[in-house]
Amino acid sequence: MLVGGSRPFETLFPENFTLLLSGPPGVGKLEWLLLFARSCLEKGERVVLITLDLHPREVRERAAALGLELEKYEGGSFLFVDGFSASVSEKPEPSGKKTYVVSSYSNLEGLGMAIAKAAQDLRPPIRALFYSVSTLFLYNSAAATAKFFQIVTNRVKTNMGFIAYAMHEGVHDGLTTNLLRSLVDGVVEMRFTETMGREVRPHHLRGIPVAAQWRSFIAAGGGA
């Protein structure tokens, strides 16, 4: 299912599937999501990227370093949900057509509505990629964020298609980590090697037989 190199997807995940991508900061979770987005877009699928950690402009730059020119897909088969710009008082892009802006990290209802609106405008099934759920825990109570996670995960799987969340390892307590893992269909893990290389493995994927083996993860650009 998952292989190393710059194209880490031999086959894509099912349409109605939920995934947690876990790894330490800097290991390449954003790259993994962008490579997944590239695979989906090249196959004619539709993608919504929810960005809480980076401005859409920086995501475009990071994607371009991986051979993905997001601009040519935006407004057609790709949309941003931008929860970053307003929260850090950076000027957001105009809302609509290509980007849906959320007012703050604490506006969980607005974030959920923006994801639903973007998915509706692209027309399901879509692939929603969320970077990162850890940011929500920094600005909201654990209970409120966990409830949001559960609601959005169920809503996307039932009505929209696929969603993958990046989670920063080491910033959550064990109870929170286990809860998030229990609410999704699969977990993919990333790690640094002793020589600061990067590896990825499918920890478990419900209904999909996989070997939980670590493989090298190599991609252009910096990790995230």
Please, could you describe this protein's structure?
The structure is a single chain. By secondary structure, this protein is of the alpha/beta class. The chain is built from six helices and nine strands. It has helices at residues 29-42, 56-65, 108-122, 133-139, 142-160, 174-182; strands spanning 17-23, 47-51, 78-82, 99-101, 126-131, 161-168, 186-192, 198-205, 215-216. A nine-stranded mixed beta sheet has the order 4-3-2-5-6-1-7-8-9, with helices on both faces. A hairpin with a 5-residue loop joins strand 7 (186-192) and strand 8 (198-205). Helix 3 (108-122) runs parallel beside helix 5 (142-160). The longest helix has 19 residues, at 142-160. The protein is globular.
What labels describe this entry?
224 residues, alpha/beta, 9-stranded mixed sheet, 9 strands
Summarize the SSE layout with pairings.
Blueprint: E1 17-23, H1 29-42, E2 47-51, H2 56-65, E3 78-82, E4 99-101, H3 108-122, E5 126-131, H4 133-139, H5 142-160, E6 161-168, H6 174-182, E7 186-192, E8 198-205, E9 215-216
Parallel strand pairs: 1-6, 1-7, 2-3, 2-5, 3-4, 5-6
Antiparallel strand pairs: 7-8, 8-9
